[in-house]
Amino acid sequence: MQRVLVVDDEYLVADTLTLVFTKSGFDARTAYSADRALEMAREIEPHLLLCDITMPGKDGHALVDEISREFPACRIIVLTGFYSNLHGVREQAKRLPRPVSVLTKPCQPDELLREAAAMLARA
Predict the structure, then answer these.
(1) In this structure, what DSSP letter does residue 97 have?
(2) Which CATH number does the domain housing residue 95 bear?
(3) Which of 46, 57, 85, 118 has the fewest CB atoms lying closer than 10 Å?
């Protein structure tokens, strides 16, 4: 079973996304901060990280960098609800050593699951 780690500081968003993945047959876990997400990643070794970019404390950019280093096989999808950040997020994603998908919030569950399947197929 594919393991997905959903990270968002907005509880409703994180819980909803986790439910979407769980109902679609994934082993989905939730973290509400980048620090907790890193701890959880070390426990479960996720196949896919779904991460919000703008979070208090350590942001999604820092988490993506750490996950990329520690878990090179983990696929990454980042989410941003701030369209003003979109260009910068995409530029950072291009600099990473492997493909990172960038989606905007809100996104449709079907679109998210399609992108997740495509990312995981590249593994």
Answers:
(1) S
(2) 3.40.50.2300
(3) 57
Give the long-range contacts of residues 19-26, CB within 8 A, separation 24 or more: 20/109, 20/112, 20/113, 21/50, 21/113, 21/116, 24/113, 25/1, 26/1, 26/2, 26/116
Q: Tell me if residue 98 falls in helix, strand or coil.
A: coil
pTM of the model: 0.87
Residue at token pair 């988490």: 63
List, for residues 11-70, the tens digit of each pLDDT value: 999 999 999 999 999 999 999 999 999 999 999 999 999 999 888 888 888 898 899 899
CA 22, CA 91: separation in Å to the nearest integer? 31
* Total structural domains within the chain: 1
> Rounded CA gap, 64 and 67, in Å?
5
Provide the residue range defining the domain that includes 52.
3-121
Give the model's pLDDT for residue 16: 95
Q: How are strands ordered across the β-sheet holding 27-31?
A: 27-31, 3-7, 48-52, 75-80, 100-104
Return left, alpha or beta for 14; rule: phi > 0 is left, psi -120 to 50 is alpha, else beta. alpha
